[in-house]
Protein backbone atom coordinates (compact mmCIF):
# COMPACT_ATOMS: atom_id res chain seq x y z
CA UNK A 1 0.00 0.00 0.00
CA UNK A 2 2.81 2.44 0.87
CA UNK A 3 4.53 1.57 -2.37
CA UNK A 4 1.31 2.17 -4.32
CA UNK A 5 0.75 5.56 -2.70
CA UNK A 6 4.31 6.58 -3.42
CA UNK A 7 4.00 5.54 -7.06
CA UNK A 8 0.75 7.52 -7.43
CA UNK A 9 2.33 10.55 -5.83
CA UNK A 10 5.32 10.41 -8.15
CA UNK A 11 3.02 9.96 -11.13
CA UNK A 12 0.94 12.98 -10.22
CA UNK A 13 4.05 15.05 -9.63
CA UNK A 14 5.38 14.10 -13.05
CA UNK A 15 2.05 14.92 -14.61
CA UNK A 16 1.89 18.36 -13.03
CA UNK A 17 5.48 19.12 -13.98
CA UNK A 18 4.78 18.08 -17.54
CA UNK A 19 1.60 20.17 -17.67
CA UNK A 20 3.29 23.26 -16.30
CA UNK A 21 6.24 22.92 -18.66
CA UNK A 22 3.99 22.47 -21.72
CA UNK A 23 2.22 25.79 -21.18
CA UNK A 24 3.92 29.13 -21.79
CA UNK A 25 3.44 31.46 -18.83
CA UNK A 26 4.32 35.14 -18.60
CA UNK A 27 7.42 35.77 -16.49
CA UNK A 28 5.63 38.27 -14.27
CA UNK A 29 2.84 35.78 -13.57
CA UNK A 30 5.30 32.94 -13.04
CA UNK A 31 6.96 35.00 -10.31
CA UNK A 32 3.72 35.82 -8.54
CA UNK A 33 1.46 32.83 -9.22
CA UNK A 34 3.83 29.99 -9.90
CA UNK A 35 1.98 26.88 -11.03
CA UNK A 36 -1.38 27.68 -9.47
CA UNK A 37 -3.58 27.41 -12.59
CA UNK A 38 -6.71 28.15 -10.57
CA UNK A 39 -5.41 31.65 -9.86
CA UNK A 40 -6.84 32.60 -13.26
CA UNK A 41 -8.82 29.60 -14.48
CA UNK A 42 -12.04 30.16 -12.58
CA UNK A 43 -14.03 28.24 -15.23
CA UNK A 44 -11.78 25.21 -15.11
CA UNK A 45 -8.76 24.46 -17.27
CA UNK A 46 -10.71 23.64 -20.43
CA UNK A 47 -12.24 27.10 -20.79
CA UNK A 48 -11.00 30.65 -20.91
CA UNK A 49 -11.13 32.39 -17.54
CA UNK A 50 -14.00 34.76 -16.81
CA UNK A 51 -13.47 38.44 -17.58
CA UNK A 52 -13.43 39.09 -13.83
CA UNK A 53 -10.40 36.86 -13.22
CA UNK A 54 -7.81 39.53 -14.12
CA UNK A 55 -9.58 42.14 -12.04
CA UNK A 56 -9.12 40.16 -8.84
CA UNK A 57 -5.50 41.34 -8.82
CA UNK A 58 -5.44 44.28 -11.25
CA UNK A 59 -7.41 47.44 -10.57
CA UNK A 60 -8.87 49.04 -13.69
CA UNK A 61 -8.65 52.61 -12.37
CA UNK A 62 -4.97 52.15 -11.55
CA UNK A 63 -4.43 50.82 -15.06
CA UNK A 64 -6.27 53.79 -16.57
CA UNK A 65 -3.87 56.12 -14.75
CA UNK A 66 -0.83 54.08 -15.75
CA UNK A 67 -1.72 54.18 -19.47
CA UNK A 68 -2.92 57.78 -19.57
CA UNK A 69 -2.37 59.66 -22.86
CA UNK A 70 -1.91 63.41 -23.51
CA UNK A 71 -5.16 65.41 -23.52
CA UNK A 72 -5.61 65.49 -27.30
CA UNK A 73 -5.22 61.71 -27.39
CA UNK A 74 -6.96 60.92 -24.14
CA UNK A 75 -9.43 58.51 -25.70
CA UNK A 76 -6.57 56.39 -27.03
CA UNK A 77 -6.04 55.11 -23.51
CA UNK A 78 -6.39 51.35 -24.01
CA UNK A 79 -7.91 50.97 -20.55
CA UNK A 80 -10.45 53.78 -21.01
CA UNK A 81 -10.94 54.11 -24.73
CA UNK A 82 -13.34 55.93 -27.00
CA UNK A 83 -15.27 52.91 -28.26
CA UNK A 84 -15.72 50.82 -25.10
CA UNK A 85 -14.73 52.98 -22.15
CA UNK A 86 -13.37 50.85 -19.31
CA UNK A 87 -15.53 47.90 -20.38
CA UNK A 88 -13.11 46.17 -22.75
CA UNK A 89 -12.19 42.82 -21.15
CA UNK A 90 -8.46 42.35 -20.56
CA UNK A 91 -8.37 39.15 -22.60
CA UNK A 92 -9.17 41.06 -25.79
CA UNK A 93 -5.63 42.49 -25.84
CA UNK A 94 -3.71 40.33 -23.35
CA UNK A 95 -3.22 36.58 -23.58
CA UNK A 96 -1.27 34.38 -21.20
CA UNK A 97 -0.38 31.38 -23.34
CA UNK A 98 0.09 33.00 -26.75
CA UNK A 99 0.91 36.37 -28.30
CA UNK A 100 -1.82 38.94 -28.86
CA UNK A 101 -1.90 42.43 -30.34
CA UNK A 102 -4.00 45.34 -29.06
CA UNK A 103 -7.55 45.32 -30.43
CA UNK A 104 -6.98 48.95 -31.57
CA UNK A 105 -4.47 47.78 -34.16
CA UNK A 106 -7.27 46.36 -36.30
CA UNK A 107 -8.05 49.93 -37.39
CA UNK A 108 -5.49 52.33 -35.93
CA UNK A 109 -1.74 52.84 -36.03
CA UNK A 110 -1.35 53.98 -32.41
CA UNK A 111 1.86 53.15 -30.60
CA UNK A 112 1.48 51.20 -27.38
CA UNK A 113 5.08 50.90 -26.25
CA UNK A 114 4.30 49.00 -23.08
CA UNK A 115 2.15 46.35 -24.73
CA UNK A 116 3.63 42.86 -24.49
CA UNK A 117 2.58 40.80 -27.50
CA UNK B 1 -50.87 31.16 -38.35
CA UNK B 2 -48.53 29.20 -40.52
CA UNK B 3 -49.26 25.49 -40.86
CA UNK B 4 -45.98 24.85 -42.60
CA UNK B 5 -43.19 23.12 -40.69
CA UNK B 6 -40.55 25.84 -40.68
CA UNK B 7 -37.66 23.60 -39.79
CA UNK B 8 -38.62 21.09 -42.45
CA UNK B 9 -37.66 23.60 -45.09
CA UNK B 10 -33.96 23.37 -44.37
CA UNK B 11 -33.34 21.65 -47.70
CA UNK B 12 -35.21 24.39 -49.52
CA UNK B 13 -33.12 27.06 -47.82
CA UNK B 14 -29.96 25.07 -48.49
CA UNK B 15 -30.61 25.48 -52.19
CA UNK B 16 -30.09 29.23 -51.90
CA UNK B 17 -26.67 30.79 -52.23
CA UNK B 18 -26.88 32.34 -48.79
CA UNK B 19 -27.24 29.01 -47.03
CA UNK B 20 -24.58 27.43 -49.20
CA UNK B 21 -22.27 30.20 -48.09
CA UNK B 22 -23.40 29.66 -44.54
CA UNK B 23 -22.32 26.04 -44.61
CA UNK B 24 -18.72 27.19 -44.78
CA UNK B 25 -18.87 29.81 -42.06
CA UNK B 26 -17.85 27.76 -39.06
CA UNK B 27 -17.64 24.12 -38.04
CA UNK B 28 -20.08 24.60 -35.16
CA UNK B 29 -23.24 25.77 -36.89
CA UNK B 30 -26.15 26.94 -34.80
CA UNK B 31 -29.35 24.92 -35.17
CA UNK B 32 -32.90 25.91 -34.27
CA UNK B 33 -35.03 23.28 -32.59
CA UNK B 34 -38.54 22.45 -31.49
CA UNK B 35 -39.10 23.54 -27.91
CA UNK B 36 -41.16 20.43 -27.05
CA UNK B 37 -40.00 19.02 -23.75
CA UNK B 38 -37.27 21.63 -23.39
CA UNK B 39 -36.09 22.32 -19.87
CA UNK B 40 -35.78 26.11 -19.58
CA UNK B 41 -32.62 27.37 -17.90
CA UNK B 42 -34.03 30.90 -17.80
CA UNK B 43 -37.34 32.59 -18.51
CA UNK B 44 -36.94 36.23 -19.54
CA UNK B 45 -39.45 38.86 -20.60
CA UNK B 46 -37.60 40.48 -23.54
CA UNK B 47 -34.61 38.94 -25.32
CA UNK B 48 -32.50 41.21 -27.55
CA UNK B 49 -29.63 39.73 -29.55
CA UNK B 50 -26.95 42.30 -30.40
CA UNK B 51 -25.74 45.43 -28.62
CA UNK B 52 -25.44 48.07 -31.36
CA UNK B 53 -27.75 51.03 -31.99
CA UNK B 54 -30.75 48.81 -32.75
CA UNK B 55 -30.39 46.56 -29.70
CA UNK B 56 -29.62 49.42 -27.32
CA UNK B 57 -32.53 51.56 -28.56
CA UNK B 58 -34.83 48.54 -28.27
CA UNK B 59 -33.76 47.85 -24.69
CA UNK B 60 -34.38 51.43 -23.55
CA UNK B 61 -37.73 51.59 -25.32
CA UNK B 62 -38.76 48.29 -23.71
CA UNK B 63 -38.15 49.60 -20.21
CA UNK B 64 -39.94 52.85 -21.04
CA UNK B 65 -42.97 50.88 -22.19
CA UNK B 66 -43.11 48.94 -18.96
CA UNK B 67 -41.09 45.78 -19.50
CA UNK B 68 -39.47 44.68 -16.24
CA UNK B 69 -36.99 42.06 -17.36
CA UNK B 70 -35.03 43.11 -20.45
CA UNK B 71 -31.83 41.39 -21.57
CA UNK B 72 -29.24 42.17 -24.25
CA UNK B 73 -27.01 39.29 -25.36
CA UNK B 74 -23.78 40.12 -27.21
CA UNK B 75 -21.51 37.44 -28.67
CA UNK B 76 -18.39 39.62 -28.54
CA UNK B 77 -16.50 40.55 -25.40
CA UNK B 78 -17.42 44.21 -25.80
CA UNK B 79 -20.68 46.01 -26.53
CA UNK B 80 -21.57 48.19 -29.49
CA UNK B 81 -20.85 46.15 -32.61
CA UNK B 82 -20.21 48.25 -35.71
CA UNK B 83 -22.21 51.03 -34.10
CA UNK B 84 -19.38 51.71 -31.65
CA UNK B 85 -16.80 52.19 -34.40
CA UNK B 86 -18.81 53.97 -37.11
CA UNK B 87 -18.67 57.66 -37.92
CA UNK B 88 -21.42 58.76 -35.55
CA UNK B 89 -23.28 60.43 -38.44
CA UNK B 90 -27.02 60.68 -37.91
CA UNK B 91 -29.43 62.01 -40.56
CA UNK B 92 -32.62 63.59 -39.21
CA UNK B 93 -35.11 65.44 -41.44
CA UNK B 94 -36.86 68.36 -39.79
CA UNK B 95 -34.47 68.31 -36.84
CA UNK B 96 -34.04 70.98 -34.14
CA UNK B 97 -30.65 71.97 -35.57
CA UNK B 98 -32.11 72.36 -39.06
CA UNK B 99 -34.73 74.66 -37.55
CA UNK B 100 -31.99 76.56 -35.73
CA UNK B 101 -29.96 76.95 -38.95
CA UNK B 102 -32.97 77.81 -41.10
CA UNK B 103 -32.53 74.70 -43.26
CA UNK B 104 -35.72 73.49 -44.92
CA UNK B 105 -36.08 69.73 -45.04
CA UNK B 106 -38.78 67.08 -44.79
CA UNK B 107 -39.46 63.38 -44.54
CA UNK B 108 -40.46 63.42 -48.21
CA UNK B 109 -37.23 65.07 -49.28
CA UNK B 110 -35.05 62.64 -47.34
CA UNK B 111 -37.00 59.66 -48.66
CA UNK B 112 -36.66 61.01 -52.22
CA UNK B 113 -32.88 61.22 -51.79
CA UNK B 114 -32.79 57.66 -50.48
CA UNK B 115 -34.99 56.30 -53.26
CA UNK B 116 -32.70 57.86 -55.85
CA UNK B 117 -29.69 56.18 -54.25
CA UNK B 118 -31.62 52.92 -53.93
CA UNK B 119 -31.94 52.94 -57.74
CA UNK B 120 -35.57 51.99 -57.83
CA UNK B 121 -35.60 49.05 -55.46
CA UNK B 122 -35.56 50.63 -52.00
CA UNK B 123 -38.54 50.10 -49.69
CA UNK B 124 -40.36 53.40 -49.70
CA UNK B 125 -42.70 52.44 -46.86
CA UNK B 126 -39.87 51.48 -44.54
CA UNK B 127 -37.80 54.53 -45.50
CA UNK B 128 -40.75 56.81 -44.76
CA UNK B 129 -41.38 55.05 -41.46
CA UNK B 130 -37.77 55.54 -40.37
CA UNK B 131 -37.55 59.17 -41.53
CA UNK B 132 -40.85 59.95 -39.77
CA UNK B 133 -39.52 58.73 -36.42
CA UNK B 134 -35.89 59.85 -36.74
CA UNK B 135 -36.46 62.79 -34.41
CA UNK B 136 -37.64 60.42 -31.67
CA UNK B 137 -34.42 58.44 -32.02
CA UNK B 138 -32.35 61.63 -31.92
CA UNK B 139 -34.22 62.65 -28.78
CA UNK B 140 -33.33 59.33 -27.13
CA UNK B 141 -29.63 59.93 -27.78
CA UNK B 142 -29.77 63.47 -26.42
CA UNK B 143 -31.63 62.22 -23.36
CA UNK B 144 -28.85 59.69 -22.81
CA UNK B 145 -26.24 62.45 -22.96
CA UNK B 146 -24.89 62.16 -26.49
CA UNK B 147 -23.18 65.33 -27.75
CA UNK B 148 -23.05 66.51 -31.35
CA UNK B 149 -20.99 68.99 -33.36
CA UNK B 150 -22.65 72.43 -33.65
CA UNK B 151 -22.92 72.09 -37.44
CA UNK B 152 -24.85 69.81 -39.80
CA UNK B 153 -23.15 67.99 -42.65
CA UNK B 154 -24.40 67.23 -46.12
CA UNK B 155 -23.26 63.75 -47.04
CA UNK B 156 -23.06 62.21 -50.51
CA UNK B 157 -26.43 61.75 -52.18
CA UNK B 158 -28.25 64.06 -49.75
CA UNK B 159 -29.85 67.15 -51.25
CA UNK B 160 -29.51 69.22 -48.07
CA UNK B 161 -27.49 69.34 -44.85
CA UNK B 162 -29.32 67.09 -42.39
CA UNK B 163 -26.60 65.05 -40.73
CA UNK B 164 -25.59 65.36 -37.08
CA UNK B 165 -22.22 64.04 -35.99
CA UNK B 166 -21.09 63.21 -32.46
CA UNK B 167 -18.39 65.47 -31.06
CA UNK B 168 -16.06 62.47 -30.90
CA UNK B 169 -16.87 61.79 -34.60
CA UNK B 170 -17.68 58.21 -33.73
CA UNK B 171 -20.75 56.08 -33.06
CA UNK B 172 -19.37 55.38 -29.59
CA UNK B 173 -20.50 58.93 -28.81
CA UNK B 174 -23.99 57.39 -28.97
CA UNK B 175 -23.46 53.74 -27.97
CA UNK B 176 -21.67 54.58 -24.74
CA UNK B 177 -24.40 56.97 -23.47
CA UNK B 178 -27.14 54.53 -24.57
CA UNK B 179 -25.39 51.59 -22.89
CA UNK B 180 -25.00 53.51 -19.65
CA UNK B 181 -28.62 54.65 -19.72
CA UNK B 182 -29.79 51.15 -20.58
CA UNK B 183 -28.00 49.65 -17.60
CA UNK B 184 -29.13 52.43 -15.29
CA UNK B 185 -32.72 51.73 -16.31
CA UNK B 186 -32.25 48.10 -15.32
CA UNK B 187 -31.45 46.34 -18.60
CA UNK B 188 -29.26 43.26 -18.11
CA UNK B 189 -26.34 43.16 -20.53
CA UNK B 190 -24.52 39.88 -21.19
CA UNK B 191 -21.28 39.71 -23.16
CA UNK B 192 -19.63 36.57 -24.56
CA UNK B 193 -23.10 35.13 -25.17
CA UNK B 194 -23.40 33.37 -28.50
CA UNK B 195 -26.85 32.93 -30.02
CA UNK B 196 -27.01 29.26 -31.08
CA UNK B 197 -30.50 29.04 -32.50
CA UNK B 198 -34.19 29.57 -31.93
CA UNK B 199 -36.56 27.39 -29.95
CA UNK B 200 -39.83 26.92 -31.80
CA UNK B 201 -43.28 26.41 -30.28
CA UNK B 202 -46.25 24.29 -31.36
CA UNK B 203 -47.52 26.89 -33.80
CA UNK B 204 -44.09 27.49 -35.34
CA UNK B 205 -43.70 30.65 -33.31
CA UNK B 206 -40.42 31.68 -31.71
CA UNK B 207 -40.62 30.96 -27.98
CA UNK B 208 -36.96 31.21 -27.04
CA UNK B 209 -33.29 30.96 -27.92
CA UNK B 210 -30.26 28.82 -27.21
CA UNK B 211 -27.36 30.87 -25.89
CA UNK B 212 -23.80 29.69 -25.29
CA UNK B 213 -22.01 31.11 -22.26
CA UNK B 214 -18.36 32.21 -21.98
CA UNK B 215 -18.02 32.48 -25.75
CA UNK B 216 -14.69 33.71 -27.12
CA UNK B 217 -15.02 34.79 -30.75
CA UNK B 218 -12.83 32.77 -33.09
CA UNK B 219 -11.91 30.13 -30.51
CA UNK B 220 -13.19 26.61 -29.88
CA UNK B 221 -15.82 26.84 -27.19
CA UNK B 222 -16.94 24.32 -24.60
CA UNK B 223 -19.19 26.85 -22.83
CA UNK B 224 -22.59 25.63 -21.67
CA UNK B 225 -25.62 26.22 -23.88
CA UNK B 226 -28.64 27.65 -22.06
CA UNK B 227 -32.26 27.29 -23.15
CA UNK B 228 -33.80 30.70 -22.61
CA UNK B 229 -37.52 31.26 -22.86
CA UNK B 230 -38.51 34.70 -24.20
CA UNK B 231 -41.92 35.46 -22.75
CA UNK B 232 -42.71 38.42 -25.01
CA UNK B 233 -40.40 37.72 -27.93
CA UNK B 234 -36.95 37.84 -29.48
CA UNK B 235 -35.46 40.85 -31.27
CA UNK B 236 -32.58 40.01 -33.61
CA UNK B 237 -30.32 43.05 -33.93
CA UNK B 238 -27.14 41.28 -35.00
CA UNK B 239 -25.94 43.62 -37.75
CA UNK B 240 -24.58 42.85 -41.22
CA UNK B 241 -22.24 40.27 -42.75
CA UNK B 242 -19.45 42.34 -44.30
CA UNK B 243 -16.83 40.30 -42.41
CA UNK B 244 -18.14 37.00 -43.77
CA UNK B 245 -15.75 36.48 -46.69
CA UNK B 246 -17.53 33.41 -48.03
CA UNK B 247 -20.97 34.96 -48.08
CA UNK B 248 -19.90 38.25 -49.58
CA UNK B 249 -17.93 36.41 -52.27
CA UNK B 250 -20.97 34.26 -52.99
CA UNK B 251 -22.76 37.52 -53.85
CA UNK B 252 -19.81 39.30 -55.48
CA UNK B 253 -16.70 37.20 -56.25
CA UNK B 254 -14.51 40.32 -56.34
CA UNK B 255 -15.00 40.87 -52.59
CA UNK B 256 -12.14 38.60 -51.60
CA UNK B 257 -10.35 38.53 -48.26
CA UNK B 258 -7.87 41.02 -49.74
CA UNK B 259 -10.55 43.71 -49.97
CA UNK B 260 -10.44 45.86 -46.84
CA UNK B 261 -13.43 46.00 -44.54
CA UNK B 262 -14.49 48.69 -42.08
CA UNK B 263 -16.51 46.36 -39.88
CA UNK B 264 -15.96 44.97 -36.40
CA UNK B 265 -14.79 41.33 -36.59
CA UNK B 266 -18.11 39.93 -35.35
CA UNK B 267 -20.12 41.10 -38.39
CA UNK B 268 -20.44 37.59 -39.84
CA UNK B 269 -24.18 37.16 -40.28
CA UNK B 270 -25.14 34.17 -38.11
CA UNK B 271 -28.27 35.83 -36.76
CA UNK B 272 -29.46 36.37 -40.32
CA UNK B 273 -28.70 32.76 -41.30
CA UNK B 274 -30.69 31.44 -38.37
CA UNK B 275 -33.70 33.51 -39.42
CA UNK B 276 -33.36 32.15 -42.97
CA UNK B 277 -33.55 28.65 -41.48
CA UNK B 278 -36.87 29.63 -39.95
CA UNK B 279 -38.14 30.81 -43.29
CA UNK B 280 -37.28 34.50 -43.38
CA UNK B 281 -37.12 36.04 -46.85
CA UNK B 282 -33.62 36.95 -48.08
CA UNK B 283 -33.64 40.38 -49.74
CA UNK B 284 -30.89 42.19 -51.71
CA UNK B 285 -27.98 40.12 -50.35
CA UNK B 286 -25.86 40.98 -53.38
CA UNK B 287 -25.98 44.71 -52.74
CA UNK B 288 -22.87 45.08 -50.63
CA UNK B 289 -21.68 48.63 -50.25
CA UNK B 290 -18.13 49.89 -50.16
CA UNK B 291 -17.18 53.10 -48.40
CA UNK B 292 -15.64 55.57 -50.88
CA UNK B 293 -14.12 57.60 -48.04
CA UNK B 294 -11.82 54.85 -46.79
CA UNK B 295 -8.03 54.88 -46.89
CA UNK B 296 -5.59 52.17 -48.00
CA UNK B 297 -3.13 53.60 -45.46
CA UNK B 298 -4.90 52.43 -42.30
CA UNK B 299 -7.08 49.53 -41.20
CA UNK B 300 -10.87 49.49 -41.03
CA UNK B 301 -12.72 52.76 -40.65
CA UNK B 302 -9.71 54.49 -39.06
CA UNK B 303 -9.46 58.28 -39.03
CA UNK B 304 -9.47 59.08 -42.75
CA UNK B 305 -13.08 57.99 -43.24
CA UNK B 306 -14.52 60.75 -41.08
CA UNK B 307 -11.95 63.23 -42.36
CA UNK B 308 -13.05 62.53 -45.95
CA UNK B 309 -16.77 62.55 -45.19
CA UNK B 310 -16.42 66.02 -43.68
CA UNK B 311 -14.24 67.36 -46.49
CA UNK B 312 -15.73 65.85 -49.67
CA UNK B 313 -18.18 68.75 -50.19
CA UNK B 314 -15.34 71.32 -50.47
CA UNK B 315 -12.57 69.12 -51.90
CA UNK B 316 -11.50 67.62 -55.21
CA UNK B 317 -10.74 63.96 -55.81
CA UNK B 318 -7.91 63.55 -58.30
CA UNK B 319 -6.88 60.61 -60.47
CA UNK B 320 -3.10 60.47 -59.98
CA UNK B 321 -2.46 59.23 -63.50
CA UNK B 322 -4.26 62.11 -65.20
CA UNK B 323 -4.16 64.92 -62.64
CA UNK B 324 -7.90 65.33 -63.24
CA UNK B 325 -11.10 64.93 -61.27
CA UNK B 326 -13.04 61.78 -62.08
CA UNK B 327 -16.27 62.07 -60.07
CA UNK B 328 -18.77 64.22 -58.22
CA UNK B 329 -17.24 64.12 -54.73
CA UNK B 330 -20.66 64.13 -53.05
CA UNK B 331 -22.47 61.62 -55.24
CA UNK B 332 -23.82 58.57 -53.44
CA UNK B 333 -21.47 55.88 -52.20
CA UNK B 334 -21.78 53.38 -55.01
CA UNK B 335 -21.18 56.00 -57.69
CA UNK B 336 -18.05 57.20 -55.92
CA UNK B 337 -16.73 53.77 -54.95
CA UNK B 338 -17.05 52.53 -58.53
CA UNK B 339 -15.34 55.68 -59.82
CA UNK B 340 -12.45 55.28 -57.36
CA UNK B 341 -11.98 51.62 -58.23
CA UNK B 342 -11.56 52.60 -61.88
CA UNK B 343 -8.45 54.68 -61.02
CA UNK B 344 -5.61 52.57 -62.45
CA UNK B 345 -2.02 53.05 -63.57
CA UNK B 346 -0.73 52.33 -67.11
CA UNK B 347 -0.62 48.61 -66.35
CA UNK B 348 -4.13 48.50 -64.94
CA UNK B 349 -2.99 48.19 -61.32
CA UNK B 350 -4.89 50.00 -58.58
CA UNK B 351 -3.80 53.61 -58.19
CA UNK B 352 -5.64 55.05 -55.17
CA UNK B 353 -6.81 58.59 -55.98
CA UNK B 354 -6.15 61.54 -53.69
CA UNK B 355 -8.52 63.98 -52.00
CA UNK B 356 -7.19 67.54 -51.97
CA UNK B 357 -8.56 70.08 -49.49
CA UNK B 358 -7.56 73.56 -48.40
CA UNK B 359 -6.14 73.37 -44.91
CA UNK B 360 -8.19 76.40 -43.88
CA UNK B 361 -11.32 74.29 -44.45
CA UNK B 362 -10.10 70.87 -43.32
CA UNK B 363 -8.65 72.12 -40.04
CA UNK B 364 -12.17 72.69 -38.72
CA UNK B 365 -12.57 68.94 -38.21
CA UNK B 366 -10.73 67.19 -35.34
CA UNK B 367 -9.62 64.30 -37.55
CA UNK B 368 -7.38 66.51 -39.68
CA UNK B 369 -4.73 66.75 -36.97
CA UNK B 370 -5.06 63.01 -36.40
CA UNK B 371 -4.61 61.91 -40.02
CA UNK B 372 -1.45 64.00 -40.26
CA UNK B 373 -0.11 62.78 -36.93
CA UNK B 374 -0.58 59.11 -37.81
CA UNK B 375 0.80 59.47 -41.36
CA UNK B 376 -2.44 58.56 -43.09
CA UNK B 377 -2.81 62.15 -44.33
CA UNK B 378 -0.36 64.82 -45.50
CA UNK B 379 -0.01 68.60 -45.45
CA UNK B 380 1.65 70.53 -48.29
CA UNK B 381 2.51 74.20 -48.68
CA UNK B 382 2.45 74.18 -52.47
CA UNK B 383 0.81 72.36 -55.35
CA UNK B 384 4.29 71.55 -56.69
CA UNK B 385 5.21 69.75 -53.49
CA UNK B 386 1.90 67.86 -53.51
CA UNK B 387 2.22 66.82 -57.15
CA UNK B 388 5.77 65.65 -56.60
CA UNK B 389 4.89 63.58 -53.53
CA UNK B 390 2.04 61.71 -55.24
CA UNK B 391 3.55 61.73 -58.75
CA UNK B 392 0.61 63.63 -60.23
CA UNK B 393 1.12 65.52 -63.53
CA UNK B 394 1.60 69.10 -62.33
CA UNK B 395 0.36 71.05 -65.33
CA UNK B 396 -2.90 69.11 -65.53
CA UNK B 397 -3.43 69.34 -61.77
CA UNK B 398 -2.93 73.10 -61.76
CA UNK B 399 -5.38 73.45 -64.63
CA UNK B 400 -7.92 71.28 -62.80
CA UNK B 401 -7.64 73.29 -59.58
CA UNK B 402 -8.11 76.51 -61.51
CA UNK B 403 -11.12 75.07 -63.34
CA UNK B 404 -12.70 73.77 -60.12
CA UNK B 405 -12.24 77.12 -58.39
CA UNK B 406 -14.33 78.64 -61.19
CA UNK B 407 -17.12 76.23 -60.21
CA UNK B 408 -16.75 77.37 -56.59
CA UNK B 409 -17.11 80.94 -57.78
CA UNK B 410 -20.08 80.36 -60.10
CA UNK B 411 -21.79 77.77 -57.88
CA UNK B 412 -22.13 75.39 -60.83
CA UNK B 413 -19.97 72.32 -61.51
CA UNK B 414 -20.26 71.75 -65.25
CA UNK B 415 -17.72 68.93 -65.06
CA UNK B 416 -19.56 66.45 -62.80
CA UNK B 417 -22.66 68.27 -61.63
CA UNK B 418 -21.58 68.49 -57.98
CA UNK B 419 -23.92 70.44 -55.72
CA UNK B 420 -21.69 73.41 -54.85
CA UNK B 421 -23.79 74.81 -51.99
CA UNK B 422 -21.42 73.48 -49.31
CA UNK B 423 -18.35 74.52 -51.30
CA UNK B 424 -19.33 78.20 -51.40
CA UNK B 425 -16.26 80.44 -50.90
CA UNK B 426 -14.11 77.35 -50.23
CA UNK B 427 -11.46 77.62 -52.93
CA UNK B 428 -8.81 74.96 -53.36
CA UNK B 429 -5.65 76.79 -52.36
CA UNK B 430 -2.41 76.19 -50.45
CA UNK B 431 -1.67 74.99 -47.86
CA UNK B 432 -3.39 71.71 -48.72
CA UNK B 433 -4.23 68.59 -46.77
CA UNK B 434 -4.40 65.34 -48.74
CA UNK B 435 -5.45 61.74 -48.14
CA UNK B 436 -5.51 58.67 -50.39
CA UNK B 437 -8.86 57.04 -51.09
CA UNK B 438 -9.70 53.39 -51.70
CA UNK B 439 -13.10 51.78 -51.04
CA UNK B 440 -13.59 49.21 -48.28
CA UNK B 441 -16.49 46.83 -47.76
CA UNK B 442 -18.77 48.68 -45.38
CA UNK B 443 -22.47 47.87 -45.36
CA UNK B 444 -24.74 45.04 -46.45
CA UNK B 445 -27.99 46.34 -47.89
CA UNK B 446 -29.28 42.79 -47.82
CA UNK B 447 -30.79 40.83 -44.97
CA UNK B 448 -34.16 39.48 -43.86
CA UNK B 449 -37.38 41.05 -45.04
CA UNK B 450 -39.28 42.92 -42.33
CA UNK B 451 -42.58 44.76 -42.08
CA UNK B 452 -42.97 48.35 -40.92
CA UNK B 453 -43.58 46.83 -37.49
CA UNK B 454 -40.13 45.16 -37.54
CA UNK B 455 -41.78 41.76 -37.87
CA UNK B 456 -39.87 39.10 -39.81
CA UNK B 457 -41.85 37.78 -42.76
CA UNK B 458 -42.22 34.08 -43.47
CA UNK B 459 -41.26 33.27 -47.06
CA UNK B 460 -44.08 30.75 -47.55
CA UNK B 461 -47.01 32.52 -45.95
CA UNK B 462 -45.94 36.14 -46.34
CA UNK B 463 -47.09 36.64 -42.75
CA UNK B 464 -44.94 37.59 -39.74
CA UNK B 465 -43.22 34.81 -37.81
CA UNK B 466 -44.77 35.18 -34.36
CA UNK B 467 -42.47 36.07 -31.50
CA UNK B 468 -39.68 37.18 -33.83
CA UNK B 469 -38.61 40.75 -34.67
CA UNK B 470 -35.54 42.16 -36.40
CA UNK B 471 -33.97 45.60 -36.57
CA UNK B 472 -30.95 47.31 -38.07
CA UNK B 473 -28.44 46.09 -40.64
CA UNK B 474 -29.55 42.45 -40.30
CA UNK B 475 -32.69 43.52 -42.25
CA UNK B 476 -32.73 43.78 -46.02
CA UNK B 477 -34.45 45.71 -48.74
CA UNK B 478 -34.82 49.04 -46.99
CA UNK B 479 -32.04 50.92 -48.79
CA UNK B 480 -32.09 49.20 -52.16
CA UNK B 481 -28.83 49.21 -54.11
CA UNK B 482 -26.97 51.85 -52.14
CA UNK B 483 -27.53 53.25 -48.65
CA UNK B 484 -26.92 56.95 -48.14
CA UNK B 485 -24.39 57.90 -45.50
CA UNK B 486 -25.78 58.70 -42.03
CA UNK B 487 -29.03 56.80 -42.71
CA UNK B 488 -28.09 53.70 -40.77
CA UNK B 489 -28.25 55.21 -37.28
CA UNK B 490 -31.84 56.44 -37.75
CA UNK B 491 -32.81 53.09 -39.28
CA UNK B 492 -31.23 51.01 -36.53
CA UNK B 493 -32.63 53.07 -33.70
CA UNK B 494 -36.10 53.62 -35.13
CA UNK B 495 -36.53 49.96 -36.06
CA UNK B 496 -35.20 48.86 -32.66
CA UNK B 497 -37.82 51.07 -31.01
CA UNK B 498 -40.43 49.84 -33.49
CA UNK B 499 -39.66 46.18 -32.73
CA UNK B 500 -40.35 46.78 -29.05
CA UNK B 501 -43.54 48.72 -29.76
CA UNK B 502 -44.79 45.81 -31.87
CA UNK B 503 -43.74 43.23 -29.30
CA UNK B 504 -45.47 45.11 -26.50
CA UNK B 505 -48.36 46.17 -28.76
CA UNK B 506 -47.77 49.81 -27.89
UniProtKB/TrEMBL annotation, chain A:
The keyword Heme applies. Keywords: Electron transport, Heme, Iron, Metal-binding, Periplasm, Signal, Transport. Its main location: periplasm. It is found in: Periplasm. SUPFAM superfamilies: Multiheme cytochromes. Coiled coil: none annotated. InterPro entries: Multihaem_cyt_sf, Tetrahaem_cytochrome. The keyword Transcription does not apply. Its cofactor is heme c. Residues 33-109 form the Tetrahaem cytochrome domain. Residues 1-22 form the signal peptide. This is Cytochrome c3 family protein. It comes from Shewanella intestini.
UniProtKB/TrEMBL annotation, chain B:
Its cofactor is FAD. InterPro entries: FAD-dep_OxRdtase_2_FAD-bd (IPR003953), FAD-oxidoreductase_2 (IPR050315), FAD/NAD-bd_sf (IPR036188), Flavocytochrome_c (IPR010960), Succ_DH/fumarate_Rdtase_cat_sf (IPR027477), TAT_signal (IPR006311). Its main location: other. It is found in: Cell envelope. Residues 46-489 form the FAD-dependent oxidoreductase 2 FAD-binding domain. Residues 1-30 form the signal peptide. PROSITE patterns: TAT. It holds the Pfam family FAD_binding_2. Keywords: FAD, Flavoprotein, Oxidoreductase, Signal. PANTHER family: FAD-DEPENDENT OXIDOREDUCTASE 2 FAD BINDING DOMAIN-CONTAINING PROTEIN, FUMARATE REDUCTASE. Belongs to the FAD-dependent oxidoreductase 2 family. FRD/SDH subfamily. This is Flavocytochrome c. The lineage of its organism: Bacteria, Pseudomonadati, Pseudomonadota, Gammaproteobacteria, Alteromonadales.
